[in-house]
Amino acid sequence: MQYRLYYWNGLQGRGEFVRLALEDAGADYIDVVREQGDTAMDSFLAGQASGLRPFAAPFLEAGSQVIAQVAAILHFLGPRLDLVPDDAAGRLQALQLQLTIADLVTEIHDSHHPIASAAYYEDQKEAAARRAADLRQHRLPKFLGYFEAVLGQAGGAHALGRHSYVDLSLFQLLRGLDYAYPEAMASLSPTLPRLRALEARIAERPNLAAYLASTRRLPFNEQGIFRHYPELDGAIARSSL
Q: Please, what's the largest Cα pairwise distance for the chain?
């Protein structure tokens, strides 16, 4: 099957979590808007019945099916791309972990846009500074500490005891945080040896290494979820780790 991925052009964003799964598996897919332009998104949405239209990109078109929401897309793709355990319990655990990653992604976004997504960062910098400080000091240690423990309980190498889309998403999470909060992550990294080892292994997977070195892998920038504003970054106090 050839998959059709719809996401906004010029951004990694939430669509990148899906791209990594498709690229790692060597799946046949079209990154539609990137290849055909922004009007392709308008045409796609115009063709959806209003009551069934997905709320927000990314969307995945698989034959006659249209799936939205990153966790739902990966839950759908996992068995088809051999990126999830075979048993129902393992698939449910993968979904639960992916939803937890989505929770943290939302908090990361809200650290630079805490008042309104539609407003400029410059119009909410004071609130962003307070929100980013809480993210650095409390939320990142809590979430990443949890994922570090998940890896430990699963044997250390993978979140689910075998390679899965969750591993790919944890890789993207770390790379994004390294871009957005380099000082905070430098402080926190010594407490995350399993996550850092996982990140290194994922980067060496043949299909992923080729993708990361290609022009298909867009650079992080200040239009996406992971944004680097130096005034929001800072070392994490050791007492919070």
A: 54
What pTM was estimated for this model as a whole? 0.95
Q: Report whether pLDDT(154) > 90.
A: yes
Residues 53, 111 share a domain: no
Q: Are residues 65 and 152 in the same domain?
A: no
Same domain? 59 vs 145? no
Average pLDDT rounded to a whole number, residues 53-76: 93
**Please, are residues 43 and 6 in contact by the beta-carbon 8 Å criterion?**
no
Q: Which domain holds residue 211?
A: 88-240
What distances in angstroms separate CA 154 from CA 12, 90, 174, one per listed residue?
29, 12, 19
pLDDT-based confidence at 41, cuts 50/70/90?
confident
